[in-house]
Amino acid sequence: MTPIFFLLFAAVAVFSALMVVLQRNPVASALYLVLSFCSLAGLYVLLHAPFLAAVQVIVYAGAIMVLFLFVIMLLNLRKDVEAGVHRTARQLFGWLLGLVLAAQLYLLLRAPWGLGPQGQEPAEAVQAVGNTQAIGLRLYTDYLLPFEVTSIVLLVAIVGAVVLSLRQGKHEGIEEAP
Q: Which of 99, 124, 128, 129 has CA 20 to 30 A from 30's CA?
């Protein structure tokens, strides 16, 4: 039964990831990204990592996507679709990028598959303390700096969105609150 669910979640993840890229409407693209995150959470459940599945849904499909949708709607991307680089140049760049990604996929599929590096903790030690505690210990000891840098990047994104909205409000004649 697990292979059937794996194929189902994998197919939904691939389809939704393609729709993220192929959609012209940024809001629809963001909603397909939520579907992709949820199917990835299903894959985590199949790997017996329910904590990671819950974090995937709560943090990414919940909080991060709300931030993305806020920024998309705040920037009003529909107004600036044809401004900037000419349409032909954008299409050429898109095709070149697609060819580079196809070449990388070919090289990935041609190489022998590896499982990646093994964790430092043996499986018995992880099972003794539990997945959640093992992840927390690793996250807040060895990976504390990348964790904090990620939070700073998200904070900068929020401040940037607020600054852009204030700047846009001045151009449209909207007064700032004192």
A: 99
The model's pTM? 0.57
Spatial distance between the Cα atoms of 148 and 56, rounded to a whole number of angstroms: 18
Vertex 140, ends 149 and 148: CA angle to 5°?
10
Q: Alpha helix locations (H) across the chain?
A: 2-22, 26-46, 50-55, 65-75, 87-110, 123-129, 131-141, 144-171
Look up tokens 């994104």; give the residue: 157
Q: What is the SS3 assignment for 112?
A: coil
Dist. CA 168–CA 145, nearest whole Å: 34
Per-residue confidence (pLDDT) for residue 118, from 0 to 100: 62
Q: 40: burial class by Cβ within 10 Å (0-12, 13-18, 19+)?
A: buried
Instruction: For residue 33, give its domain range.
Output: 1-79
16: burial class by Cβ within 10 Å (0-12, 13-18, 19+)?
A: buried
Average pLDDT over residues 148-166: 84
Residue 73 sits in the same domain as residue 129: no
Percent of the chain's residues with pLDDT above 70: 84
Confidence of residue 51 (pLDDT cuts 50, 70, 90): confident
Residues 130 and 60 in one domain: no
Q: Is the dihedral of CA 18, 36, 93, 84 positive or negative?
A: positive
Q: Total domain count for the chain? A: 2
